């Protein structure tokens, strides 16, 4: 699971209001290089919740993202490279996503998060 | 490796996972038939709900790979085996999608509201007793409850929230699902629709319908019969007429 996907996921348990971002417990992290596309990054920049991405990257051991950002940074190749790496090249392969409100753990195996709920959570 | 669609011999399988069938092929044919539009559309985010073997999402990724290389693909299924099989199918074709085991798109709705440019769904659509819907394993691949609409009817409002202003939905339906009524209901949400592929076998007639937001259509969501539904109804009656005439075929 890439961190862009992590940035799209919230806890889906009925009644939970602060289910985003899910806290990452990483057991195994992979890096898979992909081509960098500045247009894609510029487009995604406005959709990504920045602090969630920074914290998620840190929990995968990558702390090169600036804590605060502004769109002017998209002109910097160095910034784009780091943003690209955190968003698309880091993969949570094994671990869990933890709901910040309830502590419920959603397992991630072979890079696939399991968001299925138990009957009493729907 | 440069295929235009997924190759059956490279599609992975599992006893509890739906194998590519007529409906899967018809959906991929619909995407191919609409490929020129898709390439122009340049979707940033595509989602498949109920990916099964991965045949459809893999085909979509292959079709767009060259000309729209940065599309982000997400595929979901409530059957964990299906999601694992989809991973293998994607890998065998050298393409990539993010996979999530979940009910429809549960967990993604909040953050993806209004961001999905293309959504493809081959839902469980076979009319069955209501209590067969959503069971674990292979039965959930087809069991659609009364009129086969149990899962479809849950997906339609979700698609409406997830689709971007320019978003498209491609949906597989069976005649028993009452597709013209589905189109009417989507029309009440402000969507136009078109049958991209129609296919008939001895047992069933499949329609692959494309939906998109039409600024000319004012969403009403009221339980009235939409005055503009005539054209859709006649589209469908025309197809059922065709069905009698020959074995059907793609448009
Ligand atoms: C008819 S099969 C289609 C499989 C594949 N997309 C294809 O076209 O060959 C329907 C798929 O939807 C999945 N499914 C059924 N109900 C679902 C739900 N509520 N949420 C997510 N997936 C579901 C089934 O597990 C099955 O894989």
From TrEMBL, chain A:
<comment type="similarity">
    <text>Belongs to the TRM112 family.</text>
</comment>
<protein>
    <submittedName>
        <fullName>Uncharacterized protein</fullName>
    </submittedName>
</protein>
<dbReference type="GO" id="GO:0030488">
    <property type="term" value="P:tRNA methylation"/>
</dbReference>
<dbReference type="InterPro" id="IPR005651">
    <property type="entry name" value="Trm112-like"/>
</dbReference>
<dbReference type="Pfam" id="PF03966">
    <property type="entry name" value="Trm112p"/>
</dbReference>
<dbReference type="InterPro" id="IPR039127">
    <property type="entry name" value="Trm112"/>
</dbReference>
<dbReference type="GO" id="GO:0008168">
    <property type="term" value="F:methyltransferase activity"/>
</dbReference>
<dbReference type="GO" id="GO:0046982">
    <property type="term" value="F:protein heterodimerization activity"/>
</dbReference>
<comment type="subunit">
    <text>Interacts with TRM9.</text>
</comment>
<dbReference type="GO" id="GO:0070476">
    <property type="term" value="P:rRNA (guanine-N7)-methylation"/>
</dbReference>
TrEMBL record, chain B:
<dbReference type="InterPro" id="IPR007848">
    <property type="entry name" value="Small_mtfrase_dom"/>
</dbReference>
<dbReference type="InterPro" id="IPR004557">
    <property type="entry name" value="PrmC-related"/>
</dbReference>
<keyword id="KW-0808">Transferase</keyword>
<dbReference type="InterPro" id="IPR029063">
    <property type="entry name" value="SAM-dependent_MTases_sf"/>
</dbReference>
<dbReference type="GO" id="GO:0008757">
    <property type="term" value="F:S-adenosylmethionine-dependent methyltransferase activity"/>
</dbReference>
<keyword id="KW-0489">Methyltransferase</keyword>
<dbReference type="GO" id="GO:0003676">
    <property type="term" value="F:nucleic acid binding"/>
</dbReference>
<dbReference type="GO" id="GO:0035657">
    <property type="term" value="C:eRF1 methyltransferase complex"/>
</dbReference>
<keyword id="KW-0949">S-adenosyl-L-methionine</keyword>
<keyword id="KW-0539">Nucleus</keyword>
<comment type="similarity">
    <text>Belongs to the eukaryotic/archaeal PrmC-related family.</text>
</comment>
<feature type="domain" description="Methyltransferase small">
    <location>
        <begin position="38"/>
        <end position="128"/>
    </location>
</feature>
<dbReference type="Pfam" id="PF05175">
    <property type="entry name" value="MTS"/>
</dbReference>
<dbReference type="GO" id="GO:0032259">
    <property type="term" value="P:methylation"/>
</dbReference>
<protein>
    <recommendedName>
        <fullName>Methyltransferase small domain-containing protein</fullName>
    </recommendedName>
</protein>
<dbReference type="GO" id="GO:0005634">
    <property type="term" value="C:nucleus"/>
</dbReference>
<dbReference type="GO" id="GO:0008276">
    <property type="term" value="F:protein methyltransferase activity"/>
</dbReference>
<dbReference type="InterPro" id="IPR052190">
    <property type="entry name" value="Euk-Arch_PrmC-MTase"/>
</dbReference>
<dbReference type="InterPro" id="IPR002052">
    <property type="entry name" value="DNA_methylase_N6_adenine_CS"/>
</dbReference>
């Amino acid at each position: 699971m890439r961190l862009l996907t992590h940035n799209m996921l919230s806890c889906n348990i009925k009644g939970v209001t602060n289910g985003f971002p899910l806290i990452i417990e990483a057991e195994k992290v992979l890096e898979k290089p992909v081509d960098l596309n500045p247009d894609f990054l510029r487009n995604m920049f406005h959709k990504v919740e920045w602090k969630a991405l920074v914290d998620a990257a840190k929990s995968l051991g990558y702390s090169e993202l600036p804590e605060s950002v502004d769109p002017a940074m998209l002109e910097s190749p160095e910034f784009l490279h780091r943003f690209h790496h955190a968003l698309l090249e880091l993969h949570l392969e094994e671990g869990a996503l933890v709901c910040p409100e309830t502590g419920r753990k959603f397992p991630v195996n072979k890079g696939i998060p399991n968001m299925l709920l138990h009957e009493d959570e729907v | 490796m440069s295929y235009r669609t997924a190759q059956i011999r490279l599609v992975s399988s599992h006893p509890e996972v739906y194998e590519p069938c007529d409906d899967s092929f018809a959906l991929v044919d619909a995407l191919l038939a609409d490929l020129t539009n898709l390439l122009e559309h340049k979707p940033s985010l595509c989602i498949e709900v109920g990916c099964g073997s991965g045949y459809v999402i893999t085909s979509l990724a292959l079709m767009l790979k060259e000309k729209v290389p940065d599309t982000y693909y997400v595929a979901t299924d409530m059957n964990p085996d299906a999601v694992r099989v989809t991973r293998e199918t994607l890998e065998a074709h050298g393409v990539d999608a993010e996979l999530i085991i979940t009910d429809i798109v549960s967990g993604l709705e909040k953050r993806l509201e209004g961001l999905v440019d293309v959504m493809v769904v081959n839902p469980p659509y076979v009319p069955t007793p209501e209590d067969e819907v959503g069971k674990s394993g292979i039965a959930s691949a087809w069991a659609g409850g009364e009129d086969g609409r149990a899962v479809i009817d849950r997906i339609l409002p979700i698609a409406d929230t997830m689709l971007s202003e320019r978003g498209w939905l491609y949906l597989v339906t069976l005649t028993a699902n009452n597709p013209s009524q589905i189109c009417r209901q989507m029309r009440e949400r402000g969507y136009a629709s078109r049958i991209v592929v129609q296919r008939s076998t001895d047992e069933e007639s499949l329609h692959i319908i494309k939906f998109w937001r039409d600024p000319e259509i004012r969403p009403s969501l009221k339980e009235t019969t939409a005055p503009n539904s005539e054209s859709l109804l006649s589209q469908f009656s025309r197809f059922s007429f065709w069905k009698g005439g020959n074995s059907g075929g793609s448009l």
